[in-house]
């Protein structure tokens, strides 16, 4: 018999979770059932992946993030539970396979939180799902064979969601809500609506750090009240999810031709400041990721330092460009002035010549 999991959010047979640590954090682009803030352990976010399909080109690739093993490191992001039935989830996975086609590893990771950072960002979102599973792109169907086999293997484990009547649906929605106060946990629900935002904060005990707690989920109407429990390990981590799918770009250049590897901060900033791809400028990728971390109250000094350096580099490039424009205008002005002066001199010579001709003619007469 399988060991019982201590994860807060249990993974059912019809549940697929995706962990995003880059653009998926702020722009998932697919419909989700739940969205949970969390982090992965022993993985570090690095800017080693080249982007020729979204934030750069083959001639001038951009830089995007990937994960690399780093014992003791943590990387914050967002875990998404895919919404819909088997067919809808398959379309979402197909979309993700196209979107992440330059990332060669599909890793299964556990997602964690800390007692003071447990947060269900929303129980549902109104993000538009991909209508056909793939965006209107000529390369949309070019999913590598190894990725396609992985996708088919995933779909085989996704069971159709049972059809529910209104009351059962309401009860299921109630399970996703965390709205009341419970022992050791403070629950804040700042607003209502379909996309509920719930913040769970663990209170400190008199003896020191909190070692556990529970959260009561009150029914939206008359559904039975349920409870979610969590345990804090000796390092202060709370296991939120297990077996979460994560897309990673490896350093194996045989399998990942777009891997660029490490670079200095100056080199990174310059490349990011200049690169532009079909999805937009590379600097926007950095800015949106940094904004997303700030909105989740996550302090990422390396990311914020890169964001600042990219902005400074762009300002420097703009100043350089303006200096070049000014210099060129000055050159053009000098050239124009020189041409004007030469023209005036030729006119003066022409007039002098005709004056001499006229004076000579008068003397002869």
Automatic annotation (TrEMBL):
The terms describing its cellular component in GO are: cytoplasm
Q: What is its EC number?
A: 4.3.2.7
Q: Which GO terms describe its biological process?
A: glutathione catabolic process
Q: Ranges of Pro residues compositional bias?
A: 127-138
What molecular function does GO assign, one term? glutathione specific gamma-glutamylcyclotransferase activity
Q: Does the keyword Lyase apply?
A: yes
- Lyase is among the record's keywords: yes
Keywords noted in UniProt: Lyase
Q: Where is this region: Disordered?
A: 120-141, 199-218
Q: What's the name of the protein?
A: glutathione-specific gamma-glutamylcyclotransferase
